[in-house]
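Recap for those who missed Tuesday's class. We walked through two folding examples back to back. For each one, the amino acid string is listed first and its predicted structure tokens come directly after. Nothing is annotated here on purpose, so try labeling regions yourself before you check the end of the notes.
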Amino acid sequence: MSGDLDVSALAINVMIPQALRWTDTRRGEAFTLTTLNIRLLPDGRLAAKAYGRPVAGGRGAYVSFPVPDKPELAALIAEAATRAGALWAAHRGLG
């Protein structure tokens, strides 16, 4: 049966540590990025987008931002993916 399964997405959400957070602007509004959404692509590579809250407060729009090419963010993404993989591998089934 496992060869017949079509798993289309594996994604995790990870909080960005305070020291690694950054601010970016979209549609004239500044956002502090606090969360990463990390996806495992079918070819085994990882993809990540950042999400956050408007600096001015409020809920704001749910918009994604690119993750800057910084070694410490790449390390966070890799560590989170490895941890998620270990948790998935150790699952104990439903209930």
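Example two. Treat it independently of the first, because the proteins are unrelated.
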Amino acid sequence: MVQVRIGYDCDVLVIGGGIVGLSTAYAITRAAPGTRVTVLEKEPAPARHQTGRNSGVIHSGIYYRPGSLKARYAVRGAAEMVKFCSEYDIAHAVTGKLIVATHKAELPRLHGLVQRGRENGIPVRELGPAQIAEYEPEVRGLAAIHVGTTGVCDFVAVARQLAESSGAEIRYGAAVVRIDRRSGLGAAVRTADGVVVRGRVLVNCAGLHCDEIARLAGDDPGMRIVPFRGEYYTLARPELVHGLVYPVPDPAFPFLGVHLTRGIDGGVHIGPNAVPALAREGYGWGVVRPLELGATLAWPGAWRIARRHWRYGVGELRRSVSKRAFTGAVRRLLPAVTAGDLVPARAGVRAQAVLRDGTLVDDFLIREGPRTVHVLNAPSPAATASLPIGREVARRALGALAGA
């Protein structure tokens, strides 16, 4: 029998240089010093998509089902993220936030969040209208809760620090076009420039493209990424908002609604809404990629979402195409705002995993194949939870490496 000898370029090959992929690399080298890790990122720098295009909020974990990965990792990750930022002198602040009910119908859901927060171990203070004004004089509501552990930070700077501190080899401009995975031999990954990188274990943290990478690796992910664009404005009168203000979310959706966020730069960001994107990186209505759009439309789950939630979708689309409608949504919380106060800002795209039956995957989703680990659903609060997520993915990758 001829023994096959392969020259591996690394022990663990990570696809995706967002905050989750870089946290995974960081966790692997921390847990198993000497492990060779290579990260392939198609962009010329880290954190160009979900990581760098969100509102910069360190989420408390109050929204998420007790016992879920989102709840456990967000609560733990929020504290760890503040500590990490402090250790590396990365801009951050623990500001707290208000979740405000503006209609009577929202009061039961607000009280439900109080209970959920307590179950998740999060300190919550209930407020009446006068107490809301103590925190946010321009905000109006029937009732609110104050969540003290919420904050803001520079997630792009966090990603850069993770890359540097991991000691991993980070290859930018390395778009993956082919994966050859063979039983017992790990994976050979070809990039668009013709370079082949071989790793004993493959980790897929490709975000908006994670399902495509899973299929390239020969695994059926059982889901598809359906991209939703979130559009933002900047508030021209930032003095109207002191901190973070959120509406009461609809429990039927993983989106939190249009909210107000004073960032670490002192500016106030308003948004996002949630509309279907016409490309995986479709940051505007003018960005259309027919092959990607066709793949989304061919997935049965996408049509089932549309049929099930079309009323909600119509409202989101209306706010996308009408600044007046978007302003109306903001005025529910902040009556003093006018359309002239809203300055367009860059959008983000949420990589939302959708099952064949139209279910929006609510929790983080991590699956394994032979010598592979796939992160298949890691939208918000993944940036907040990135350090615990990275450790979990690293644990699975190192387990696969030990059995290789």
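Answers for example two:
The chain has eleven helices and 20 strands.
The CA atoms of residues 15 and 323 lie 38 Å apart.
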